[in-house]
Amino acid sequence: MPELERSSRLRHSVGSRLKLRHLALLQSLERHRTLSRVAAEMNLSQPAITKALREIEDIFMTRLFERTSRGLTTTAAGRAVLRLAQVTLADVDATAHVLTAIDTGLIDRVRLGITPQVPEGLLNAAVTHLLGQTPRVAVLSREGTTDELVAALSAREIDCAIGRSFDHQFGIEVEQEPIYEQEPCLLVPARSQSRLSRGPLDWARLAGLDWIFPPPNTPMRRTFTAMFLSAGVQPPPPVVETMSLRTIETVMRHLPNGVTLLAKDIAADLVQRGECAALPYKLTWNLPPVSFFVTRHLAANPTIRSLALAIRKAAHAPATRGR
After folding, report:
1. Which of 35, 107, 116, 234 is surrounded by the fewest CB atoms within 10 Å?
2. What is the pLDDT of residues 119-138, one digit of tens each?
3. From 3.30.70.260, 3.30.365.10, 3.40.190.10, 3.90.1150.10, which CATH number describes the 105-180+289-320 domain?
4. d(Cα 242, Cα 245) in Å, to the nearest integer?
């Protein structure tokens, strides 16, 4: 069959025959990988599930699962269709929440992702802007590493996020806009500052301390690795891996030789509370920029655009970013 003819037939088949129940069945098949478990979950007979799967594969004109002795295995076409199911059902769920918000007198619902190390002033600016809308906007906030938030954006689980720029591929569905750069500093327990500040900056000596690293596969973790390698020092194994400021502060109480790298405007809040102190070394590079991420299909949404503008304004007003 010529490619154009097949493409036309496929679009017609999907547009005229595909139902949301088909997509829900595909997700159940992906979760359980056996027809019997899917049948039990959906309270249907196994022959009915088999018939429904054949219908779906007929709609898409290709095999979506391979039947093996260990259960169902997704084909390349199946993975593409499952991506469609995930995005479509997530959009339906998000629309239902928006409609519910409108029914209660709100105008919209924004699902915002935040990394734990976003400056308090920037977070305040974002939340103040959203809660100050007239008519009011419902807000869902979700914390995670940048990689986790970008994955959530790709899955349509959130609408936008504030995180750190990074170069890794994350698909065409997500756009990122750098907002501002942060200056790094080394943070240690306050009671150890004098001792750990002696002498010039020596990365080999610092590598022997008890390091708190960000989790693997995050922009900040890659920064930590590059930081040591550029100094000709092998990155040390971390004692603790976390992005949580609360955890960092707690760990510093228990590790006299604890050390981590934070943005100065983030570290200032911990220093002010008295448990931590910054080492007096000037680092000559900046951290990956704080950035605004948005799913491409929402980039022109008026509520999202106004939020992005408010965040940009706050980022260029140092007093709102923390000390």
Report:
1. 234
2. 888 889 999 999 888 778 88
3. 3.40.190.10
4. 8
